[in-house]
Design goal:
Blueprint lengths: L7 H16 L7 H5 L9 H5 L6 E5 L5 H8 L3 E6 L2 H14 L4 E4 L5 H4 L5 E7 L9 H11 E12 L26 E3 L17 E3 L4 H11 L2 E8 L11 E2 L6 E2 L10 E7 L6
Parallel strand pairs: 1-2, 1-4, 2-3, 4-5
Antiparallel strand pairs: 5-11, 6-7, 8-11, 9-10
Helix pairs in contact: 1-5, 7-8
Amino acid sequence: MDDPRADFLEINRRWWDEAARLHVDTELYPLDEVVAGFDPRRPFEDEEVGAVEGLALLHLQCHLGTDTLAWARRGARVTGYDLSGESLRVARELFVQAGVSGTFVEGPVSEARERLGEARFDLVYTGIGALNWLPDLAEWAGEVWHLLRPGGRLYLVEFHPLLGVLREDLPELDPSADYFYRPEGLVSTDPGDYADPDAVREHSANVEWQHHVGEVIQVLLDAGFALEYFAEHDAMSFSPWPGMERVEGQLRWRLGRGRPRLPLEYSLLARRPSREV
Ligand SMILES: C[S@@+](CC[C@H](N)C(=O)[O-])C[C@H]1O[C@@H](n2cnc3c(N)ncnc32)[C@H](O)[C@@H]1O
């Protein structure tokens, strides 16, 4: 087999188009409940961001649009952007069913400003399994910068890179896995899917990159952002390990009783300054 890294965008697009079909109406993507009003986002998001009514919000790597819809219901004027056309097809249908308006544009993050044209946003929202699909975070930070109006903010809510160090069968520390970024990335050919335990994929190959917290913060500072907020959270939005306990009423899980409290997600706010020096 050729090295999937040589053509990672096409390999990952196929993987995500297939994922979009598999994810419809799974536990992690309960579309009917979302149409009926369920908010799948993390409960700290509204508090951390504040009011979004009337704001132009871009959701980068929006997948099926479930979180995008929740922001629209809070009053934001939303645009969803994603590599996977099949994800966006589901997202558009979700918005139609919910009777909410939104705009969806297809493309890779590396071409976001080109594909979104003149549009500038008050808030760029992204994360929950987004950065790990991007090989070059300096490029990502540059795209976000150009998509924000001066004074606009990036809100990132992401899985903690510590997850990459934990064993897949048990959340124990496994020192054989890297915490730090490696430019060559990680190729997986697992035929399963994180949201559909019974899936046997036709397109099993994908390519990901681990991005440590220091790297994420430094690329934002280098791009000129002012870091305004950073937090770590002890629950996360999927449950890869046996014995995890679901947080009542939420799409989040903790490691569970008797296990150490570890950072499983983090969130940050970074502002493009109003006046650039
Ligand atoms: C785990 S999902 C993000 C989940 C999302 N936060 C949600 O609301 O469910 C990752 C998304 O990133 C998209 N993606 C992967 N690589 C990308 C790239 N290079 N540019 C744009 N989108 C990409 C995938 O198509 C997928 O929809």
